Amino acid sequence: MKKEVTDYRYTHSLGVAETAKHLAQKYGADSVKAELAGILHDFAKFWAKEKLELTIKANSILEQDLLDYNAELWHGPVASILIQERFDIHDEEIVLAVRYHTSGRENMSLLEKVVCLADYIEPSRQFPGVEEIREIAEQDIDEALRLALDGTIQFLIKKKMKIYPLTMIARNNLLKNREKQ
Fold it and tell me: Using CA atoms in the order 121, 10, 86, 61, what is the torsion angle rounded to 10 degrees?
């Protein structure tokens, strides 16, 4: 991992791994899987856009509509392929947690929620509102994740960027599940 990313991104990945492990222990997910997915989630973060695009096109199991949206989304799905090929990690929970850490999706598993949220709130992240989400993460993972997705969506709106549909679906699914409770 250290060879694939910058020093900052490596520190970030260690922070995601530790935060994911903590959240997994708190909410009953597999902490070993959470830590592993956390350390590997950004494995393809610094690949060239062209290389990411080729990998997505070559893997029909990946959502091809990703290519219609910001390239910042692409590294998670590509990393989910790479961890299988390079590290022989085929555990579906880990693969899906890495794949959807950038977008979320409907009916996320607990491990997917843990890794997605850990990526948003790990200790090196510093932006307005992150402390509040960290506090809520200690009480309610779904509410904290919804707030994280809201923050991502608001950021994209301010930047006049397209919002990936799975992100909206993930957010709405969390709200729907809250209403059912």
Answer: 30
What region does 166 belong to: left with phi over 0, alpha with psi -120 to 50, or beta? alpha
pLDDT (tens digit per residue) in 35-69? 999 999 999 999 999 999 999 999 988 888 999 99
Residues 122 and 63: their CA atoms lie apart, in Å, by 27
**What distance lies between CA 103 and its chain's CA centroid?**
6
C-alpha–C-alpha distance, residues 5 and 22, integer Å: 24
Model's pTM, two decimal places? 0.95
- Is residue 80 a contact partner of residue 55, using CB atoms and an 8 Å limit? no
CA distance 38 to 49: 22
How many Cα neighbours within 13 Å face the side chain of 66? Answer: 27
